[in-house]
């Protein structure tokens, strides 16, 4: 008489479902981390553009924070004709899953560069 296979499907499902849930959670966390990093890059670029135009420090921070993830920290520095904006943030997640994200953008200051209109006048 052949053996019955009644319990194998239940046992396999009990192993596969938690593994799939864990895999889906890891993929979701990775996508959210990538999106937060892109927001940091966008925030740094927006801040560098504002700083290059000669905006005030508060306006630069506001421009950077408008594109950066919630809770980001913005730092600005001027190095000669260059303005440098750094955005630091942390990803969502418990303990070691909360990674630190950094992005930096550099732009040439438009103040005193002698740049006229695009048509050369």
Give a short summary of the structure.
With 121 residues, the protein is of the alpha+beta class. It has helices at 8-52, 57-67, and strands spanning 73-79, 82-90, 100-108.
Short descriptors:
single chain, 121 residues, alpha+beta, three-stranded antiparallel beta sheet, 2 helices, disordered C terminus, transmembrane, transmembrane helix
Structure description:
- This protein has 121 residues and is of the alpha+beta class.
- The protein has a domain at 36-108.
- It is 46% helix and 21% strand.
- It contains two helices and three strands; from the N terminus they run ααβββ.
- The protein has a three-stranded antiparallel β-sheet with strand order 1-2-3.
- Helix 1 runs antiparallel to helix 2.
- The longest helix is centred in the first third of the chain and has 45 residues, at 8-52.
- The radius of gyration is 25 Å and the shape is rod-shaped.
- Mean pLDDT is 86; it is low at 113-121.
- Residues 7-49 form the TadE-like domain.
């Amino acid at each position: 008489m052949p053996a019955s296979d009644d319990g194998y499907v239940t046992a396999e499902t009990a192993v596969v479902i938690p593994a799939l849930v864990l895999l889906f959670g890891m993929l979701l966390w990775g996508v959210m981390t990538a999106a937060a990093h892109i927001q940091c890059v966008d925030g740094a670029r927006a801040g560098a553009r504002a700083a290059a135009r000669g905006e005030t420090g508060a306006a630069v921070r506001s421009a950077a924070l408008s594109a950066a993830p919630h809770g980001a920290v913005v730092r600005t520095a001027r190095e000669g004709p260059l303005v440098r904006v750094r955005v630091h943030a942390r990803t969502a997640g418990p303990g070691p899953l909360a990674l630190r994200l950094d992005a930096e953008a550099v732009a040439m200051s438009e103040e005193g560069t002698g740049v006229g209109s695009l048509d050369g006048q």
